[in-house]
Structures are given as C-alpha cells and as structure tokens.
Amino acid sequence: MAQPNFIDNFSQQFTLEPERSALLVIDMQNATGNRTMGLGKLLAEQGNSASAEYRFDRIENLLIPNIQKLIAGFRQAGAHVIWITYGANAADASDAPHHIAPIIKATNNIAGQPEHEVVEALKPGPGDLVLNKTTQGAFRSTALDSSLRALGVDTVVSTGVSTNNCVAMTSMEACDLQYRVVVTSDATGTDSDEMQEATLTMLKRLWSRVLTTDEILAELSAGRNDA
Fold first, then answer.
1. Bond into 162 cis (ω within 30)
2. pTM score of the predicted model
C-alpha cells in the first residue's frame, strides 16, 4: 500500500455543510461542451474530430449525468447552485484577454449567441445565479467572491470543464481567497486521462479535496440530517 505523501498532512480537511456550500458548474456551454457546435464543429470542419473524442465522450457520458445528480442533491440539501460561463460580452470579443480571444472567436463564444448558452441538458434554474467570466479563473472577472460572501458560503464544489484550465484556476483562486474547496473527480473533464489525473493530483496538494459525485452527495446528505 502506498504511503501518504508528506503534503497530505497539510492539505484541506473539512466536511461539507449544505448551508455553507455552493456547487459551481463551470463552462458547460455549447462552445466547448457540445460536439456539434463551437469547438466540436470547428474540429469537424478541419477533419480533426478524433482529437476531441475523449473530451466529448466524457462530457456526454460522465460529466452531464453526474452534474445533474449534484444539482439535484444540492437543491435537496438546501445548498446553492451557481453557474459560471465564459466568453466575450462584446460582439467583436474586444473585452476578452489576448490569450483567450482567439478561441472565443473561433468557437463564436459571444454572449447572446447559441454557442455561449449552457448545454441543453444542464439549463440553469430560474433562481440560479449565472456569472460570465472573460478569464480562466471565475473570481478574477466576475462578482463570484462578493456573491458567495453575501450568501454566507465559504465552501465551493467545482465541476465542469476544463479540469486543467478554468476548473483548476477557479478552484485555486477560491483557495487563495480562503474558501474551502472540493473538486469533483468524475464531474470534471478535459482532453485526456493524463491531463485529468495530473491536474487532480496537483489540486490535492494543498488546494482542495478531490471527491467523487457519490462521496459529495453522501456528505451533503449527512450534513442535512445533522442540521
């Protein structure tokens, strides 16, 4: 049996409490999460769909069902669900940082366009907060921090895409802002197993707990019953 790494003794340790927790659904949009639109359409036109097969298979077969379960569990527990989108607000993407603007333009990820919308299977509820970012981290370019504090939330559970980009950056920003952080291992996705596992390994080193959907739901249920 592998011995615990020394850093494990210093990594985040806590139990989820529903009234203090929010589920973050990050960038689950048609632009990069739908194989027939945005990135998927662009790659198909280039004859390169195979390069994103892992990504879209994981989104359709794992992320969407597990995020649906998490949303239902958070609602049942009385916890918050917050949607994070990314993309430009300006029609010419002039408000997007230079390192993100090219992919935003290439995937037509502009507010008001179909590509910018959340994938059909995961539409936000009428009372859900939806925040749009123009950076990879959600705290840098949205009101997420002030919104969480107003809601009395000090714990965030990250889901969505991409694990090694926007999910990781948002989770690390949250940790540096002294939130308690959980990253969901089977409700996050990127372009390969290698990238997925490497990012989760990194996040477990001080930044967050890494739990499965079922582990998160079990803790929420226990916390609700203890209240």
1. yes
2. 0.95
